[in-house]
Amino acid sequence: MKKSITMLVGLAFATGVCAQTDVLVGVMQGKDYGVTYLLPKTEIEIAVRATKHTYVPGEFCKYADRYLRMGNVADNPNTHWTVDGVSIRVVGVPDKDKVYFVKMKDKSVAPLMELTENGIVRSINVPINSSKAKEVIPATALEPATEVDPRKFLTEEVLMAGSRAKMAELVAKEIYSIRESKNALLRGEADNMPQDGAQLKIMLDNLNIQERAMVQMFSGTRSEETHTSFVRIVPQELENAVAFRFSRKLGLVDKDDLSGEPYYISITNLETPAIPADDGKKKKEEGVAYNVPGQARVILANARGEEMFKGELPVTQFGTTEYLAPVLFNKKSTIQVRFDTATGGLLKVDRN
Hints:
It is a single chain. This protein has helices spanning 64-68, 128-131, 156-159, 164-187, 197-219, and strands at residues 4-8, 23-25, 34-56, 78-103, 112-116, 121-124, 221-233, 238-247, 251-253, 261-269, 288-302, 307-324, 335-339, 346-351. It starts with a strand and ends with a strand. Helix content is 17%, strand content 41%. A hairpin with a 6-residue loop joins β13 (335-339) and β14 (346-351). The protein is elongated, with a radius of gyration of 33 Å. The chain contains five helices and 14 strands. Mean pLDDT is 81; it is low at 1-21, 24-30, 106-110 and 130-144. α4 runs antiparallel to α5 (197-219).
């Protein structure tokens, strides 16, 4: 989560009944003092959740059917990827064409103006503690179970066997012996029965570990790793454009890499809210600027036409820029304003 930069900024309240803000476009230099803030533009972020499946054949995989009656055991290593799902959201990046300067004057009131670390306005006059979202602590990934070396369970007879086939035969006999020992414990027929349930569980757990390790010498091992990759797209009118490609062998690849299956994105400007027609007159830009994002219909589908995502998202580039009236910021009231840092739109305006 990005850290915030909180600044005390005078919103240029001049003396008098209706002292108002003085907000100018562009970065001011010279003797002017104040703070520069930016509004964001929207990018569409696609999160692709995928799993890497890895298979490593066992040392005795060719003898799995003969000694353990395990059919269809592959003798070649294999790695492949699968898509678990996708999610789409909008993120805000600084728009260098929407830079504003809040100018400070004498006898000005100094409200809190909070910016993100890249200069996007987050809030005005909102107490720091309440304006910050609670930090989300990422879940700690569980460490994979430690692989057990099956060779440490092998007897001298097995290790001294003259051929791989003979070793496989002896290991299979050890597996059957372990299974017989487990059955004897469960039936209460073992020569050395445990004193209580806790001891029984420890003995069974140890036997299970040995059996699993030895069986993997025939069946091989399989492992899975989950990954989340991100793709960014600048919104514009698109119809079945390639967003990215996904390869069963390589996972997520670039949209120009033909080794992967294409995933197509369509973006439609819904033209909301209605943007007033340009009358050719230059608008007077004063007050605190904010975005009024438009809406876009976004559809993401795979090569078979199956929709992975379909929904409407706010897009700054499809909207317009407006201004909070300067009269809102005077000495008689304190206006609290919250902005959406992904779109630059207003979230809430309160008067105290």
